[in-house]
Each structure stands twice: as structure tokens, then as C-alpha cells.
Amino acid sequence: MNYKLLGRSGLKVSELSLGTMGFGTEAGWGADKKTSFSILDAYANAGGNFLDTANIYKLGTSEKIIGEYLANNDRDHFVVATKYTLKDNTTNVNASGNNRKNMMRSVEESLKRLGTDYIDLLNLHIWDDLTPIDEVLRGLDDLVRQGKVNYIAISDTPAWVVAKGNTLAELMGWSQFIALQVEYSLISRTPERELIPMAKHFGLTVTPWAPLGGGVLTGKYQRGEQGRIKPESKRRNDKAVEITQAVIEIADELGVSPGNIALKWTMQQGFQSIPIVGATKLSQLEDNLKAVNITLSAEQLKKLDEASAIELGFPGEFFREEGVKTNVYGGFYDRIEKRG
């Protein structure tokens, strides 16, 4: 694999991130430790170094498995990203959410499970709509100054909150978010309305989760295979079938899997994007890794874009109106260099 700089930092990470939400067998599914280790080995051997986990994944087992793996391998080779916010018990009202108390407690527990002195990238997992963003940023900056965290990022949070946070952090001299994790795929393009334009403005790397639409874009449901996504899920509808069919047609043209096409689409969108590829089987990872060796043509990208197009709504669609462009740019719209 090749490597990318993560956001406005000097941190170098592989062009695919390994999602480890399935490391562990709690809830009746996932990969046991032996299988998880084989997946980690294959990923590392392919040049991968960017691991994505969270305090809640498999009730902490994901972090424990990674910790055991790191103990027997080169810890400094890997960029370990974990998250705080979500509950790890239901008896303490402050054992969840974005507040500083939960942040500090959760990080200490993650460090123990990971068996390491520091976390490379700490993500706020989900915005709680309660905690002031200045409380979050000051707490995260303290963790960086303490050497327990190297960089910070944010996931599943409104664009205006992230924008306010990074602006405040710049003003105060605090650590700034360098990456944004959101659901993004051919069947989930709504981040293009606000989140992705915001990420481009602030130089944030986007790390899409569910880039395969929970498996829908692999074509397995067209083949009649079963999965954990229920038939009534928002990811399984007539539009998703239409999009997946376009993915399959291009995959057949190139002689690769549909999953490779769906992944590569997220990597060729004109902004820095590092998709998170989850795997509970070695064969899944091996197939996902092939995506780095293909390139989609302009015609193929156009076909996928048209099949999956969404309405941007206001103000996105408004900005595209010819009358608006004529009045705002004085008739020079097509002759002015655009940023980003």
C-alpha cells in the first residue's frame, strides 16, 4: 500500500484502514483471537498500519486483541485509533457521553486494554448534544499534552460543531481535529451536503465507515446470500439495488469484485479519503486489499455518480442554479479557479 498524510499533520497512514469492530465473538458473531491475528498479519504484510477500534467494540475485546497483538509485534509501526463516548456500563450516568470525566476514564481503560502508554489517534465517537465543544477540545488537548494521545479526530458529529471546534482550537492554541469519520458510500452520500465540504475546508481526512454499505455493495444480497442487515434496513431498498447493479457491471468490466469498485469510489472523490475496511474473515481482507491496485476511469466514475446521485437540498442545489452563478460571479463562473 501507499501512504497518506492524515489531515493537516505529518502522521503517515496506509491508504486503507483496518476496521476491527468484529474482533471478538460477543453477540454471536465476529472473529476469534486466532482469526483476528491472521487478519492483522495479512494487513501488516500488505503495508497496512492504520487500525481502527473503539472502547465499546465487542465489549472491549477488540482493544484487548489488538493489545495482545501489539505486545508481540512492533507497537511503533502501527497507528492505533480508538474512540470514546459510548457506554461501557449502565450503572454510572457519567460512563457515557462526551464529557471530560467520561473522556479521561474511558481513555485510561482503553490504554489498559490496549496494553500501551499512548493512543495515536483518539476519536470522539458520537456527538451527545450536551457537552460544550470547548470542554471537549480542552480535555483532548490535555491528553495530548500528557502524552497519552498523539492526535485527535471526531466521528458522527454535525458539521457546524466540528467547524466551531477547530476554529476555537486554532484560536486557543489547542490541538485540532485532523480527521472526520462518517458513514459514506455509494448508498450513503448525504455527507456531501455539509460534512465533506467542511472537511475539505479544514483539511480533515475523511475516514468513511461502512464504505461497502454494510455489505450491500458487494452484491451478496443480489446473489441471495444472507447477512446481518435486515431486509427492511435503509441500506436495502430499490435504489440500493440499482446502485449495486452499476457497481457489479463495472466490476465485471475490470475483472474484480464489486467490493473493490465500491471501495475505490470512496478513494477517488477529489478529497483525501481513507476508507475503513472491516473484516471477520481473512478472505474478506484479502479481497479488500485488491482495491488499491485498480483505478476507475472518468466514465466509470460518472456512471457510479449518476446511479447514486442525491439532491443536495438547500443551499447546495441553490448554488448550482445558473441564475445564481451568473449573479454571484458576474458571468465569469467557468473562468475562475475554484478552491478545493
Structure characterization notes:
The protein has 340 residues and is an alpha/beta fold. It folds into two domains: 3-310, NADP-dependent oxidoreductase domain (TIM Barrel); 311-340, no CATH class. It contains twelve helices and ten strands. The chain has an eight-stranded parallel sheet, covered by helices on one side. It has a two-stranded antiparallel sheet with strand order 1-2. Helix 4 packs across helix 5 and helix 7 (238-254) crosses helix 8 (258-267). The relative contact order is 0.12. The model has no long low-confidence stretch (mean pLDDT 95).
Question: Gist?
Answer:
The protein is α/β, with parallel strands linked by helices.
Name its key features.
TIM Barrel; 12% strand; 340 residues; alpha/beta; 12 helices; globular; 10 strands; two-stranded antiparallel sheet; 8-stranded parallel sheet; 2 domains
- Give me the count of strands: 10
Assigned CATH class of the largest domain: Alpha Beta
User: What is the average per-residue confidence, as pLDDT, rounded to a whole number?
Assistant: 95
The portion of residues assigned to helices is 25-40%
Which class of secondary structure composition applies to the elements?
alpha/beta
Q: What is the rounded distance between the termini?
A: 25 Å
Number of contiguous helices: 12
**CATH 2nd-level architecture of the largest domain:** Alpha-Beta Barrel
The shape is globular
* CATH homologous superfamily designation of the largest domain: NADP-dependent oxidoreductase domain
